């Protein structure tokens, strides 16, 4: 499930082929801030617009500029290198003396705004992201493309984890299995065979755990897309409140739940695996057990439990907020929309068709 092109489509056959991200300006992301600066404190909040740089590179640049360790740099989310993105960073300056902001400016980095704040910017501290995507060499019937976009605007999207989560060629899941000490195919014929656990660096361990969790979630979402329940829920469903990590249920189906679901106030949810029993019951529990019980699913689950991660949930559905589109030419389509934090713009492209980036299908 690590290759997006292998995931099922929720709205029917593809309606277009296109080229995506031929230049950084074809992929623009602007963070939606979750709070206003405090105005006082020893953390300098910087809103930066970057081109062709990833978040880690900018964090290192800020640390050198401020003369501090990278631990003193905060940011709410990770942003792609091959894009033009606007995002916040915080820089810890206990003496409230900042170097000249003009020295940060380069052709690929611009300071948009600065203000003092009373604490480091934590991960996830944003309302969402606004995307502007340009598709080129578009092939397909305009009427069918616009009908598909209208369906997405009205019904939302399956909330897939994107390929970025799984590493080059999807290799992070295989590496996670090695880290967990899962026996390879050649050893599985030996009863009780288990390979030695592979030691990895702390930062790599976090990436591999996330990849394993994401893989299991995508397997459940695959089953839910195939049976059509990704947007309507099942008996025994645990519901997630939109815009939060709060969940509730299971509870009997009611007109009130139906109204909230239609209004995108709540979403069906899927597992982010860890220790403890999932809250789901009935048909929902049966579907998840089957989806996660096949192939290397049990090994991934056991590894996440051994790592002492806790059971969490993630919305199966995401809303493409204020989805708009504009044809710049017969074969050039611009898309504008917002997504909640942690959701992937490539999920929308997947529902349109084969969108190619550097000879890859996303």
Quick check: average pLDDT?
91
Q: What spatial form do the alpha-carbon principal axes imply?
A: globular
Strand content: 25-35%
Structural class, judged by helices and strands? alpha+beta
Function: Responsible for synthesis of pseudouridine from uracil-13 in transfer RNAs.
Enzyme class: isomerase
EC number: 5.4.99.27
Family: Belongs to the pseudouridine synthase TruD family.
SSE topology sketch:
Elements: E1 16-20, E2 27-33, E3 43-51, H1 55-66, E4 73-75, E5 84-92, E6 109-117, E7 126-139, H2 142-155, E8 157-158, H3 171-180, H4 202-226, E9 239-241, E10 247-248, H5 255-262, E11 266-272, H6 282-292, H7 297-306, E12 312-315, E13 317-318, E14 321-329, E15 332-339, H8 346-352, E16 353-357, E17 360-361
Helix pairs in contact: 3-4, 3-7, 4-6, 4-7
Organism: Pseudoxanthomonas winnipegensis
Family: Belongs to the pseudouridine synthase TruD family.
GO molecular function: tRNA pseudouridine(13) synthase activity
Structure description:
By secondary structure, the protein is α+β, with helices and mostly antiparallel strands. The chain contains eight helices and 17 strands. The strands form three sheets. Strands 1, 2, 3, 4, 5, 6, 7, 14, 15, 16 and 17 form an eleven-stranded mixed beta sheet that branches. It has a four-stranded antiparallel beta sheet with strand order 10-9-11-12. Strand 9 and strand 10 form a beta hairpin. It is an enzyme of class 5 (isomerase). Belongs to the pseudouridine synthase TruD family.
């Amino acid at each position: 499930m690590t290759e997006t092109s292998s995931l099922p489509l929720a709205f029917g056959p593809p309606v277009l082929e296109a080229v995506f991200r031929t230049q950084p300006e074809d992929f623009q992301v602007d963070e939606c801030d979750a709070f206003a600066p405090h105005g006082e404190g020893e953390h300098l909040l910087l809103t930066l617009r970057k081109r062709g740089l990833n978040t880690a590179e900018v964090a290192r640049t800020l640390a050198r500029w401020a003369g501090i360790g990278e631990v003193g740099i905060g940011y709410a989310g990770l942003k792609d290198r091959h894009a033009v993105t606007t995002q916040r960073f915080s820089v810890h300056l206990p003496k409230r003396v900042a170097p000249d902001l003009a020295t940060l400016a380069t052709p690929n980095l611009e300071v948009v705004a600065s203000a003092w704040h009373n604490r480091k910017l934590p991960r996830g501290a944003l309302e969402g992201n606004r995307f502007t995507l340009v598709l080129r060499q578009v092939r397909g019937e305009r009427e069918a493309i616009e009908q598909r976009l209208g369906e997405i605007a009205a019904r939302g999207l399956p909330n897939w984890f994107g390929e970025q989560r799984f590493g080059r060629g999807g290799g992070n899941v295989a590496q996670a299995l090695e880290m967990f000490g899962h026996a390879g195919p050649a050893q599985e014929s030996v009863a009780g065979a288990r390979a030695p656990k592979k030691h990895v660096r702390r930062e790599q361990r976090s990436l591999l755990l996330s990849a394993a969790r994401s893989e299991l979630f995508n397997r459940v979402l695959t089953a839910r897309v195939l049976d059509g329940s990704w947007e309507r829920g099942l008996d025994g469903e645990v519901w997630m409140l939109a815009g939060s990590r709060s969940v509730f249920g299971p509870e009997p189906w009611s007109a009130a739940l139906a109204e909230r679901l239609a209004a995108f106030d709540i979403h069906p949810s899927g597992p982010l695996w860890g220790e403890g029993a999932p809250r789901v019951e009935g048909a929902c529990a049966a579907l998840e057990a089957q989806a996660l019980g096949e192939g290397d699913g049990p090994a991934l689950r056991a590894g996440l439990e051994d790592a002492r991660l806790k059971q969490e949930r993630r919305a199966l559905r995401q809303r493409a907020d204020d989805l708009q589109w504009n044809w710049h030419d017969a074969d050039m389509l611009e898309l504008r929309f917002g997504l909640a934090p942690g959701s992937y713009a490539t999920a929308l492209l997947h529902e349109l068709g084969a969108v190619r980036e550097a000879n890859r299908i996303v």
